[in-house]
Design a protein that fits this description.
Elements (H helix, E strand, L loop, with lengths): L1 E7 L2 H36 L5 H34 L4 E7 L2 E6 L2 E6 L3 E6 L3 E6 L3 E6 L5 H12 L1
Antiparallel strand pairs: 1-2, 2-3, 3-4, 5-6, 6-7
Helix pairs in contact: 1-2
Length: about 160
């Protein structure tokens, strides 16, 4: 296969991609643990216990919440910085049997399919993870089922 598509980016799409990356990266388990620690804090506080344990739970909540916020906003700022550097918010993706190429007005790259570790698929965007490099946001509006199947097949092979 030898296909080229042009995709468009928007602030909303970038924010959506960052949100999906952040929430999936943290995982449901960590959100549940955070909620349980918050409930434990409230129960210990309401029981009238003002021991070191209450302080520990409070510190854990503040630290976890702060770390989560900081990690989200660092990812968002980094992605928005790249978006803002684009004169026109479009990119060309080239898909061949050997490589994937990405070109925009801020640069270009070609990668062997072996460099792609995984794909997180969402209806409006795919996150294509490059080995030890982060991810590339691929809007899905401009590609058909044949191209989607080709990309998935190349990443899994």
């Amino acid at each position: 296969m030898n296909r080229e598509i042009t995709v468009s980016y928007s602030r909303e799409l970038i924010k959506f991609a960052v949100w999906k990356f952040w929430t999936r990266n943290i995982g449901l388990r960590n959100f549940v643990i955070f909620a349980l620690v918050c409930v434990a804090f409230i129960l210990v506080f309401l029981s009238g216990d003002c021991s070191w344990f209450l302080g520990f739970l409070g510190a854990a909540i503040v630290f976890s919440f702060g770390l989560g916020c900081v990690s989200y906003f660092i990812s968002l700022r980094s992605s928005m910085k790249k978006f803002n550097r684009m004169e026109t918010p479009t990119a060309k993706f080239r898909f061949t049997d050997e490589r994937i190429g990405i070109e925009s007005n801020i640069g270009w790259t070609e990668l062997s399919w072996k460099m792609i570790e995984k794909i997180w698929e969402y209806p409006s965007v795919w996150l294509i993870f490059i080995a030890k490099q982060g991810y590339v946001t691929l809007p899905t509006a401009n590609h058909d089922d044949e191209l989607k199947q080709f990309i998935v097949r190349k990443v899994r092979s």
